[in-house]
Amino acid sequence: MAVNNPKFDASEALLGAYSVPDGAKWALDARSLAAANLRRMGAPVKRDEYWKYTNPVGLTQVPAPKAALFEAGETPMFDAIDRLKLVFVDGVFDADQSDDLALSGLEIETLSDALSKDIHWAKDLFGVLETNGQTPVDRPLAALNTAVAQEGFVIKATGKVAKPVAIRYLHASDSSDAMVHHVIKVDAGASLTLLENGPGAARFNSVMEVDVLDGAEFHHIRTQGRDHQRRTATHMFGRLGAQSIFRSFTMTVNGILTRNESVLEFTGDDAKATVGGASAGDGRDFHHDDTVFVTHDSLNCESRQVFKKVLRNGATGVFQGKILVKADAQKTDGYQISQGLLLDDNSNFLAKPELEIYADDVICSHGSTVGAIDEDAIFYLLSRGVPKAQAEDMMILAFLGEAIDEIEDDALSANIHERLAEWMERRRG
Amino acid sequence: MLDIKNLQVGLEEEDKQILKGVDLKIGEGEVHAIMGPNGSGKSTMSYVLAGKSGYKVTGGSATLYGDDLLDMAPEERAAAGLFLAFQYPVEIPGVGNMTFLRTAVNAQRKARGEPELTAGEFLKEVRTKAKSLKIDADMLKRPVNVGFSGGEKKRNEILQMAMLAPKMCILDETDSGLDVDAMKLVAEGVNALRDGKRSFLVITHYQRLLDHIKPDVVHIMADGKIIKSGGPELALEVENNGYADILAEVA
Ligand SMILES: Nc1ncnc2c1ncn2[C@@H]1O[C@H](COP(=O)(O)OP(=O)(O)O)[C@@H](O)[C@H]1O
Ligand SMILES: [Mg+2]
Questions:
Q1: CA separation for the pair B113, B185 (Å, rounded)
Q2: Contact A171, A198 (CB under 8 A)
């Protein structure tokens, strides 16, 4: 490999910037494998095919760029919901602000505790789903995370967990550079809902490895709200067993740079997965990227990708989504839609939808649209006395609503709808 | 109430004159009907009064209670009491009909400095009014006009009119495409709103609607102008002989 290749300079700089936490041998092995993977791949750079639309520099720079704190001045997300609350401040678990970890149907411990035990079920997952997800596309920031992340949770749902587990990531220092890594196992027939909200840190790198066993259900709802200057890279690696259900939804407003990657693999028959996102960006310094890769490798599974972005004043939204159907994944039903609503000519929506199909008996469809707000609809609203800004917001909410409606739980869906409406109203001032 | 003087309107994007000097004065509590061949400018006039963009007013004026309508934003015209029942009501996917109605009612109340209706008050009112128009709960829940039949869309326009209680109602071919029963429902809805003060401008091709909504004055519009005005008998004449005679008469 060439000397002075910026990819490898950057990966060395990153690995040099963080220390590897102590742990049991299997954990250290997983960490060094991840570090070796990162060295092999190099850090992402703009000229990488997979980073064509999103400049990763803010995510790889050492030290991390700063981000001014943002006071939201609103009730924190999900506060009204009966839940197990867990709080991280700049990526560090804050037990004082969190609930007692005991919750029926749930085994939960911190990443450092789990990784220090010589024998632990997490051995089969930690770094494993992430490594699987590195093929066929490199995800160096996830490898970095596995190599050095100090904090996170290791969670096993053994039954139908009634209360959602809600993780809040607070941003308290303008120079924080946080990494969290969660390992989640939803046992056969069990179910778990995980909620996440908050900016996390000035720079936040999160990895979640989720193993959803046969007949299990995993629901994930995340909001990344209103902190303007933060930079975020998240990776969700999901493995789906037979007849399992996996649903993940993310709502994002603001943020200089957000890259949310979801990598799902169907390994058992008759399973269903939905990944969705709604985002709203205002201004040249908004950049939001959803990158999704769904691999069908079993019979009769259904996957849906539904992503919507509203962009104004020079904001940029990116969607890269792929459905890969392997040769024996017959009866696959794959669906993908990505839509951009541009409120002016300065904003950009860049979409790269991909289908790669090797099985013959499948239904797969994908679509991507970009458009402006429907002027006839706006006039209809105006003619009924609704002021212009409010009429536009109604149209925006309606547009994003179609993605929000992918959330199965009505209460949580209503929660997200309401919060988005509040955010819109606040913007109007 | 509504006073239109020598209104001249062209398109913004191309050099095309559509209204060529319309004069029309509607007093309080009056019902006027406008008939006229397709393409004569009836919808254009109603859009321009409601404030749709894309048109260029090149001359004349339009006032509501003495206030310059053409100077107001569309939502201000609505708050001032103008209502247009669209010839082609617009579908708005993702916006619930009920939410739409409540937002509109309260936005107008707010603009007029009146207290907003509570959810309960609103619901009670909308239910009563919807019932008399045979609009069921499902139609109220569905997205605005999406998947509505032609008749449902028109009844939904009348429901909006009833909820917004405007002073000046313009109905653009609200009867087109309706069967007799649906037309009766619409006419009853309109008549229920007649209170001696509220005024109506009914654009229609058919005498049949005017049997139910009795106009005080009937106007004939052709080629961007009102070419003839008269009593209800004028509508009968159109019904029997078409526009040819009238057009020939003024030519
Ligand atoms: N936005 C527009 N663009 C082009 N032509 C238009 C537009 N609006 C109206 N016109 C033209 O103006 C004329 C009057 O149309 P309209 O007002 O719809 O008539 P009516 O309602 O009486 O049938 C027609 O020739 C129509 O084609
Ligand atoms: Mg017309």
A1: 33
A2: yes
pTM here?
0.92
Whether B53 is in the pocket of ligand 1, judged by its Cβ within 6 Å, is no
d(CA A189, CA A191): 7
Q: Which ligand is nearest to the CA of B226?
A: 1
Q: Are B7 and B19 in contact (CB under 8 A)?
A: yes
pLDDT band at B248 (very low <50, low <70, confident <90, very high): confident
Cβ(B202) – ligand 1 distance below 6 Å: no
The total domain count for chain B is 1
CATH number at residue B76: 3.40.50.300
- Structural contact between residues A314 and A283, judged by C-beta atoms closer than 8 angstroms: yes
The two beta strands, A245-253 and A272-282, are parallel
Contact B140, B125 (CB under 8 A): no
User: What residues in A contact B143, CB-CB < 8 Å?
Assistant: 398
Q: Tell me which residue has tokens 């052709």.
A: B222
Question: Where in the sequence is the domain holding B142, given as residue range(s)?
Answer: 2-250
Residue B123 CA to residue B126 CA, distance in Å, equals 5
pLDDT digits 0-9 by tens, A79-88: 999 999 999 9
- Stretch among A226-235, A264-273, B206-215 having the lowest mean pLDDT: B206-215
Could you tell me the end-to-end alpha-carbon distance of chain A, in angstroms, rounded to an integer? 55
Domain chopping of chain A, boundaries: 6-268, 375-429
Probe ligand 1: pick from B9, B14, B18, max atoms within 8 Å of CB? B18
Would you call A25 an interface residue with chain B, using a CB distance cutoff of 8 Å? no
Q: B10: Cβ below 6 Å to ligand 1?
A: no
- Compute, in angstroms, the gap from residue B44 CA to the centroid of ligand 1: 6
Ligand 1 centre from A391 Cα, in Å? Answer: 26
Token pair for B149: 């039949």
How many residues belong to chain A? 429
Report, as an integer, the average pLDDT of A136-165.
97
**Alpha carbon distance B205, B242 (integer Å):** 10
Q: Which of A386, A395, A381 is nearest to A424 (CA)?
A: A395
Q: Is A127 helix (H, G, I), strand (E, B) or coil?
A: coil
Is the ipTM here above 0.90?
A: yes
Q: Which of B20, B35, B42, B44 for mutating ligand 1's site (highest number of atoms within 8 Å of CB)?
A: B44
